[in-house]
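Q: Give me the 3D complex with magnesium ion.
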Amino acid sequence: MLRIAIQKSGRLSEESLNLIRECGISFVNSSLKLKTECTNFPLEILFLRDDDIPGYVADGVADIGIVGQNVLVEEGKEELTVEKLGFSKCRLSLAVPKSDEYTSIHDLNGKNIATSYPNLLKAFLDAQGVQAQIHTISGSVEIAPSIGLAEAICDIVSSGSTLISNGLKEVERVFKSEAVLIASPELSPEKRGVLEKLLFRIQAVQRARKAKYILLNSPDDKIEEISRLLPSIKAPTVLPLAEEGWSSLHSVVNEDDFWEIIEKIKAAGAQGILVVPIEKMII
Ligand SMILES: Nc1ncnc2c1ncn2[C@@H]1O[C@H](COP(=O)(O)OP(=O)(O)OP(=O)(O)O)[C@@H](O)[C@H]1O
Ligand SMILES: O=P(O)(O)OC[C@H]1O[C@H](OP(=O)(O)OP(=O)(O)O)[C@H](O)[C@@H]1O
Ligand SMILES: [Mg+2]
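A: Here is the predicted complex, encoded as structure tokens.
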């Protein structure tokens, strides 16, 4: 049985549970139970505070875990990383009151900065040659300038709305983060085997999230030209349509290139283009 530690409640929780479910793993989730065994996969889920997860995995209390890179690197445990998971994307940024004049990072020399990430902040300031007093607080960091605790803050930003609501402006990006899967370096061969199985499923889910299945009708004399425009795992599938002179082409396209490809294949003569999500993708 492999033990995975995930955040009990917060910005990582829902997506972490979704990922486990999308891997076809079932479990009963009650908000009061802090530990649950999966019913169809040798996995036990522990629900913890996110800050505790790297430590538990490093100590072997949990075998694997899901945590933000910001917390992992802050705690000096980056080497536990196994796989980036692509959700809970955010950045750690420096911010100052909106009305402050700010020209460069050197404006922070000698200032007080409140943060929950003193190590990441110190490394950033040292690299820029800036000396400031770092005040470590565990939450509600954005309030610090308005209560006279600090002149600047360094905290997590995603949409930026918390900064705006608190009269602050983002002035420097310190660190980019997303959720990652971490693992203890000392897993037994049995546990490593379960981790490999889980990773295989996670990668299939991740690949599928980025990809779309595309079907289109093409005049037979345009198949070659349209096929060249379509990326695919091997080559596009070509099936004859009931109408003479026409074929159906099937392929897989990446979400990032999607609109550009659609424009090109339409211009090349594609018609009746259908795009459908993919649930799993094994290559
Ligand atoms: N606004 C956001 N958008 C996207 N991801 C975020 C956001 N805020 C935080 N994160 C990411 O999610 C992680 C957990 O954030 P959250 O705010 O839930 O932590 P927390 O309050 O410290 O929770 P806990 O109670 O478990 O200690 C952060 O470390 C960061 O990686
Ligand atoms: O840029 P935004 O989209 O506004 O997000 C940023 C906010 O999100 C996080 O807090 P969260 O809302 O998770 O609450 P917490 O402070 O209780 O962790 C983070 O600490 C910021 O305060
Ligand atoms: Mg926390």
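A quick observation: Residues 212-277 form a domain with the Alpha-Beta Plaits fold (CATH 3.30.70.120).
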